[in-house]
């Protein structure tokens, strides 16, 4: 994966945020075998740029997801509720920055992400300021459905490369490439990897990006995979998991 990425021109974090922050967006996710990923990266439009911070182009992420005692967030996703949500902390391991993030659903299937700074040493805790922020974003209706305090239910770690993709019509989008995904149960320490596969996600406005079209040409189609939902289903096979069943059956070793 390194070679084609290092041939691409760089984009700074400030510029990426200025031209393609896309906090409200359409997300399309793909599960891509690593050998196929190498071929795809070779065929990216040469105008594609890769996020570069101090010469580093691959960044380690650690996310802690929080849910209620009866898994309101998870079950909302599993049952495809329109008012589903996720609450997590995300730590950028390389520089130690940490945020609390809340994802909700916007109109026409868009994803809306809002975030606030969070103390890195408290990444596994929803501090009082973090809960105040999260509950404000969730609103009274969602908060009323919670049957108790949010607690950590899943940890994900992975390595991410972020691409800035400019379309011929002048629109900008982002593509993220996640490898080395590991799901961990914070209560027991039990974990499961997703070996040999990358999760590629395009984050666009209303129209598909050049990355989507490249993936489609290679016969790859968007799939339902949620790092939280799929990870919980992998570690807790007794949970309902209809939206992610195809990915689980096709890509996750049931005998691991």
Automatic annotation (TrEMBL):
Protein name: VTC domain protein
UniProt-listed InterPro entries: CYTH-like_dom_sf, VTC_domain, VTC_sf
Alphabetical GO biological process terms: polyphosphate biosynthetic process
Signal peptide start-end: none
Coiled coil: none
SUPFAM superfamilies according to UniProt: CYTH-like phosphatases
Residues annotated as domain VTC: 25-236
């Amino acid at each position: 994966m390194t070679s084609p990425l290092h041939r691409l021109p760089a984009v700074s974090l400030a510029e990426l945020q200025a031209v393609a922050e896309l906090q409200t967006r359409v997300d399309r996710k793909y599960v891509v075998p690593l050998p196929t990923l190498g071929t795809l990266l070779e065929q990216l439009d040469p105008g594609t740029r890769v996020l570069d911070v101090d010469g580093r182009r691959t960044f380690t992420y650690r996310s802690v997801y929080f849910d209620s005692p009866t898994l309101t967030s998870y079950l909302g996703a599993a049952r495809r509720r329109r008012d589903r949500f996720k609450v997590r902390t995300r730590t950028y391991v390389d520089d130690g920055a940490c945020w609390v993030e809340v994802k909700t659903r916007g109109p026409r299937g868009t994803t809306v992400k809002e975030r606030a700074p969070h103390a890195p040493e408290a990444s596994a805790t929803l501090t009082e300021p973090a809960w105040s922020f999260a509950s404000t974003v969730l609103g009274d209706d969602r908060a009323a459905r919670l049957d108790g305090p949010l607690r950590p239910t899943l940890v994900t770690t992975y390595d991410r490369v972020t691409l800035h993709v400019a379309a011929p019509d002048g629109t900008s989008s982002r593509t993220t490439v996640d490898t080395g995904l590991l799901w961990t149960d914070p209560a027991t320490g039990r974990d499961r990897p997703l070996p040999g596969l990358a999760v590629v996600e395009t984050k666009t406005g209303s129209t598909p990006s050049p990355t989507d079209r490249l993936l489609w040409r290679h016969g790859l189609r968007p799939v339902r995979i949620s790092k939280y939902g799929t990870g919980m289903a992998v570690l807790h096979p007794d949970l309902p998991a209809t939206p992610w069943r195809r990915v689980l059956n096709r890509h996750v070793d049931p005998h691991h």
